[in-house]
């Protein structure tokens, strides 16, 4: 299997702070790769570097044969990198369906179309409804986003990434703030997606991570201290010390 | 906005009544023997058109341009300068106005849109001031004092010297722009623009090259103001740098906010409300001499009170309040 994403020697400094410290990582087609680590380990910085919202000081990011190290976020999205945000980032003026259809629209040709209502374009609405069905939001399609419950907004966040048809999903704590039942639904959904697309998952919910991930990378102070299968990670003493032990207290 | 076209709602009724009433103004003015009304309401239509143009970037795109008066100026000066040189054909004037307007808007927009927020406001203002002083320096064309037009634009059989014809031309242009914008804001292009208003960062991460869409909206919005400027020059038979004074840009923003940002009819309602209240207060005759004098002299202060009232109490503006109330149902 060839790597879909190849990150080598990635560095990001914020003043004197080394937020990402020569991070190298490679993602295989179809795998779910989880990145875990204590708070402040630089997980979100790493996701932002991959997504392009933070430019890297050093290192290289090659995605699906494209060197995207210097590319702006929209180009990365266009070559198939989709991301969700830790803090729900949806369009509050729009309905659930409009949000999702906009995600489809981003990958359905140019948007210099001035006449036909987007809501009547089957090419936008049908894939959007399909993405909503996948996350279980079909009934809420016409609800304004502003009245959604927190868990539903998180689901919409995932539906939008799916609707872009991305090859790689960067999911930044998709289960943050969800009830156990809602988390279970997301775990089930991500299991279904396994094989369909490649997922880089940043998550605090250890049960979810160990249930889903093919491989796990542990990040401490911006540096990967261990990478391996869930079983290998579970048995590494330094990982337990750096992270799992601490998590147990919390 | 996304609701089915067939539903009858309060905002729709209001919009229809407002537009029909505007359409009937020359007839009413004639019946009442008040020809001045036609001129006054032509001004209303022209400002409604300019504010509608501004609303595309301000209301739907959240780009606070404080320099849109410069495009009114470009439209007016295109008519003025060509007419000075003996080119009376409205079509040539239109071509020149739109050509220059589009070029300036592309260049200015491409620079300004690299910034956002307060910087965008200031830089658009700076460009408008540059153009203002350029117009002041045009001594051949009246400089600071402006110049009178030799004649109005000639559009085939349209006699713009007839104030009713000019009125209905402005009315037709306004209706056409409103109809086109009504389509545009719900089409793909409008969805991108409104998405940028709500969360531009997310738009980029979905894969939209947002700059080119925002720039296009800026150019379209500028061109609508150019049309308003051409009509203005024809209404007053006069062009002067005062058309692109920064206060005019400010008035356009006030009209848009007053009527309802990001609503189709809001700027029309806002322009009508502001200009008519102005006119009404400045010439108010209650029959109490001291009160009349007070109001007639200090009407600007009262306008301030009116605007504060609308913004504080209705929040989304006159028409925007109706739309928001409907949405809550």
How would you describe the overall organization of this protein?
The complex is a heterodimer of chains A (250) and B (329). Chain A has 2 domains: 1-80 and 168-240, P-loop containing nucleotide triphosphate hydrolases (Rossmann fold, 3-Layer(aba) Sandwich); 88-165, no CATH class. Helix content of chain A is 37%, strand content 25%. Chain A has helices at 43-51, 73-78, 96-105, 122-135, 150-163, 180-193, 206-212, 230-234, 237-249; strands spanning 3-14, 17-28, 32-36, 58-63, 66-67, 81-84, 168-172, 198-202, 215-220, 223-228. In chain A, the strands form 2 sheets. In chain A, strands 6-7-8-3-9-10 form a 6-stranded mixed beta sheet, with helices on both faces. In chain A, α4 (122-135) packs across α5. The longest helix of chain A has 14 residues, at 122-135. The relative contact order of chain A is 0.18. With 329 residues, chain B is mainly alpha-helical. Chain B contains 13 helices and 2 strands. A two-stranded antiparallel sheet of chain B has the order 1-2. Chain B starts with 9 loop residues before the first helix and ends with a helix. Chains A and B meet through α2 and α3 of A and α6, α7 and α8 of B.
Question: Which features would summarize this protein structure in a list?
Answer:
heterodimer; A: alpha/beta; Rossmann fold; 6-stranded mixed β-sheet; 25% strand; globular; B: 329 residues; mainly alpha; two-stranded antiparallel ribbon
Reported by name, the CATH topology of the largest domain in chain A is Rossmann fold
The CATH top-level class label of the largest domain in chain A: Alpha Beta
Summarize the main sheet of chain B: 2 strands, antiparallel
Average of pLDDT of chain B:
94
User: What's the arrangement of strands in the largest beta sheet of chain A?
Assistant: 6-7-8-3-9-10
Gist of the model:
The complex is a heterodimer of chains A (250) and B (329). Chain A has 250 residues and is an alpha/beta fold.
């Amino acid at each position: 299997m060839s790597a879909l994403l190849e990150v080598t020697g990635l560095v990001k400094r914020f003043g004197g702070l080394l937020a990402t410290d020569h991070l190298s990582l490679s993602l295989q087609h179809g795998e779910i790769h989880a990145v875990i680590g204590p708070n402040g380990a630089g997980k979100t910085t790493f996701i932002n570097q991959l997504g392009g919202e933070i430019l890297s000081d050093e290192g290289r990011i090659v995605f699906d044969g494209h060197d995207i190290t210097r590319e702006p976020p929209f180009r990365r999205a266009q070559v198939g990198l989709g991301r969700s945000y830790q803090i729900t980032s949806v369009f509050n003026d729009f309905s659930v369906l409009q949000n999702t259809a906009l995600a489809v629209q981003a990958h359905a040709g140019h948007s210099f179309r001035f006449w036909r209502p987007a809501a009547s374009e089957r090419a936008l609405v049908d894939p959007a409804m399909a993405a909503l069905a996948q996350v279980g939001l079909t009934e809420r399609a016409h609800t304004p986003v502003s009245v959604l419950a927190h868990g539903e907004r998180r689901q919409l966040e995932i539906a939008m990434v799916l609707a872009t048809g991305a090859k790689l999903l960067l999911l930044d704590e998709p289960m943050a703030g969800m009830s156990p039942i809602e988390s279970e639904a997301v775990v089930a959904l991500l299991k279904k997606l396994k094989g369909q697309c490649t997922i880089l998952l940043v998550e605090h919910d250890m049960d979810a991570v160990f249930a889903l991930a093919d491989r796990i990378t542990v990040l401490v102070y911006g540096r990967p201290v261990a990478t391996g299968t869930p079983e290998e990670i579970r048995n590494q003493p330094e990982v337990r010390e750096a992270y799992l032990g601490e998590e147990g207290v919390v | 906005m996304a609701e089915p076209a067939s539903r009858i709602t309060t905002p729709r009724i209001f919009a229809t009544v407002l537009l029909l009433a505007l359409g009937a103004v020359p007839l009413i003015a004639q019946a009442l023997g008040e020809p001045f009304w036609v001129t006054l309401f032509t001004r209303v239509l022209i400002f409604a058109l300019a504010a509608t143009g501004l609303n595309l970037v301000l209301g739907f795109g959240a780009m606070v341009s404080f320099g849109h008066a410069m495009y009114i100026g470009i439209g007016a000066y295109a008519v003025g300068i060509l007419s000075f040189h003996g080119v009376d054909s409205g079509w040539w004037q239109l071509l020149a106005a739109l050509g220059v307007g589009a070029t300036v808007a592309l260049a200015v927009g491409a620079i300004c849109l690299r910034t956002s927020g307060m910087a965008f406001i200031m830089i658009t203002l700076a460009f408008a001031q540059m153009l203002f002083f350029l117009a002041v320096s045009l001594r051949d064309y009246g400089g600071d004092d402006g110049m009178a037009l030799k004649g109005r634009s000639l559009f085939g059989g349209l006699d713009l010297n007839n104030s009713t014809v000019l009125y209905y031309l402005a009315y037709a242009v306004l209706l056409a722009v409103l109809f086109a914008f009504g389509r545009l804001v719900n089409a793909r292009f409008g969805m991108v623009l409104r998405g940028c208003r709500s969360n531009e960062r997310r738009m980029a991460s979905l894969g939209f090259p947002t700059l080119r869409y925002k720039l296009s909206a800026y150019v379209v919005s500028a061109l609508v103001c150019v049309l308003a400027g051409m009509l203005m020059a024809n209404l007053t038979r006069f062009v002067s740098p005062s058309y692109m004074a920064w206060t005019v840009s400010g008035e356009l923003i006030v009209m848009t906010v007053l009527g309802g940002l990001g609503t189709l009819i809001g700027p029309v309602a806002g322009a009508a409300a502001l200009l008519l209240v102005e006119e009404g207060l400045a010439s108010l005759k209650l029959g109490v001499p001291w009160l009349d004098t007070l109001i007639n002299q200090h009407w600007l202060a009262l306008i301030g009170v009116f605007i504060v009232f609308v913004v504080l109490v209705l929040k989304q503006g006159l028409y925007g309040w109706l739309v928001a109330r409907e949405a809550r149902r």
